[in-house]
């Protein structure tokens, strides 16, 4: 994710798992019912980019819920952008000089074709303990719980010291244009809670195993490689062939591995994640955390798709195009290299490395990245770490809590670009076998709602008072 020099923090990595006295969660049946109802109604809006995008209508619905819950209509804005829109709702605090706390998420979802699903993806269904529908995991249930938690807090008479700003972008799954606009508007924030990141893992037996919060994400980048030749008739081959030259360059890039890296956050992740694993993988995690140059550990982690992206920058060819006729020498061949860059590394440095690795003078390379900006890790701030650890201890006593780095992109990127610390902090717990985000038959256990509301209420209160 993006940006920021380390802010002073009192506790280091050891504080992440500091014992916190578990407190009994307070059940609120009305709030739980409201959260589920909001989620079901939200799923019914087809908030997908393109014709018929219903994101603005979904924003209107969320606004009506907030107004009914005590938010002044004047403090809620919905801003149309192209075929989508974004919502910003402000709960004004008692100290107008205090920087606001932002709760960030998105209401758009990826496309879902009903003909491919077992159930209509835009008709929410609760069945066998699961909420089914597009957005059940990513991330309409989280949006519903955060909304219901804020309403619950208002009804209980809580007054925040700093403003609490609820911000829902409308194209996080595609261009992130609204994401960038929101971050620009709220760049004076103290910190951001991104409820579209982090989360807990359930074992296949349904028992909670661990919870991670996202304190960093890799920078997304696309680089276009091009080779051009004069071309000619295929019956008269020439020593230089654009497709061959590009192919050889791609093969070299495909075999190249960037030097592994660790940060304070990823080192802590590997140390703590090793406690949840066993055998060779656990040993490799511990060894890599101790020495990121340990070749045996690197080999084990690089061979695992779940962890290769955690040990450094990765670049892979994703698209190729070449030639213009079956019976002609190619005049042009192009390829796209998609990179996920370790926080703190500049895209320009990665592009220069790719150029050197390609080792083909005929290849030109340019940065064609859209909708992404470089971002560093967020600091491991003591106030956030303590608040998230305390909130989780209240609802999932004894569950290990530690940081993680996301290999994907989220709205946090844009806030970090403006030097605003942002943390992925969703309380959703899910089995690995149940994770169908962006896939078919998306579903999430509904028993996340009760602890999720208490977790959000605790986290929002601690960081806004």
TrEMBL record:
Pfam families: M20_dimer, Peptidase_M20
GO molecular function, a single term: peptidase activity
Record flagged with keyword Nuclease: no
Domain Peptidase M20 dimerisation: 216-362
Keywords in alphabetical order: Hydrolase, Metal-binding, Protease, Signal, Zinc
InterPro entries assigned: Bact_exopeptidase_dim_dom, Pept_M20A, Peptidase_M20, Peptidase_M20_dimer
GO process annotations (BP): proteolysis
N-terminal signal peptide: 1-24
Record flagged with keyword Amino-acid biosynthesis: no
Superkingdom in the source lineage: Bacteria
Stored NCBIfam families: PRK09133.1
Family from the record: Belongs to the peptidase M20A family.
Protein's name in the database: Peptidase M20 dimerisation domain-containing protein
